[in-house]
Amino acid sequence: MKPRYAELAEQLIRAIGDGTFEVGASLPSEVELSAQYGVSRATVRSALERVQELGLISRRKRAGIRVEASKPRVAFEQSMSSIEDLIQFAVVTERHVQSVAEISASPGLAAQLGVETGSRWLRTEMLRVDQAKPDSPICWTDVYLEPLIGAGIKKELRNSSGLICEMVEQRFGRVVREVRQEIRATGIPARLAKPLGAEVDAHALEITRHYVDDRGAVFEATVSVYPADRFTYVLQLKRYD
């Protein structure tokens, strides 16, 4: 089941798309939307953040909430600075599983994942899709799980859209304490060009994430390839006095 803010975001997106809220017009305030849809202001705020990420609205002090476009922009923009941001990303996108198989880590893959060469992993290959643009996948992701863990949630991998590390926590009690992330520029590999609907060697971002538990062990790793024109990674740096 989707969180209420995700459902509300979809309702607002539809209302903007069908002209209920016209471009250039102002949306009701957070208080008014809260009363209209019967949800808390926190839920309204989270929903508006999602709609704003798609470029449909702008929010400014004193100016209120203004409709800027009737259709989402092409690129998916996401700010990720916490595990909660990853959870939101999983909620507002769909996971389309392509294959699930147990593999042995080659020297190159082992180095990338930070695991031993020859170690066994359950690999799930999948596409991440923005619900508003199902024909243009956001990314291709290879998810690597310890075999025992993978076998325990294999059914959920295909039937659920939630974050995989949350499934692991619920089933095995392995809690994510930190996510180590590496980002590099790359080209679209030939094997991913067709499923992503992109040109071979077109510009892309490759993001590798290592999910670390209380003991400092990596029990999940992901490698994602994002076509450059479909995803913007936002990082905010703040000064603390």
From TrEMBL:
InterPro entries: Bact_HTH_transcr_reg, Chorismate_lyase_/UTRA_dom_sf, Tscrpt_reg_HTH_GntR, UTRA, WH-like_DNA-bd_sf, WH_DNA-bd_sf. Pfam families: GntR (PF00392), UTRA (PF07702). Signal peptide: none annotated. Residues 2-70 form the HTH gntR-type domain. One of its GO terms (molecular function) is DNA-binding transcription factor activity. Coiled coil: none annotated. The keyword DNA-binding applies. GO terms for biological process: negative regulation of DNA-templated transcription. SUPFAM superfamilies: Chorismate lyase-like, Winged helix' DNA-binding domain. The keyword Lyase does not apply. SMART domains: HTH_GNTR, UTRA. Keywords: DNA-binding, Transcription, Transcription regulation. This is Transcriptional regulator, GntR family. It comes from Candidatus Burkholderia verschuerenii.
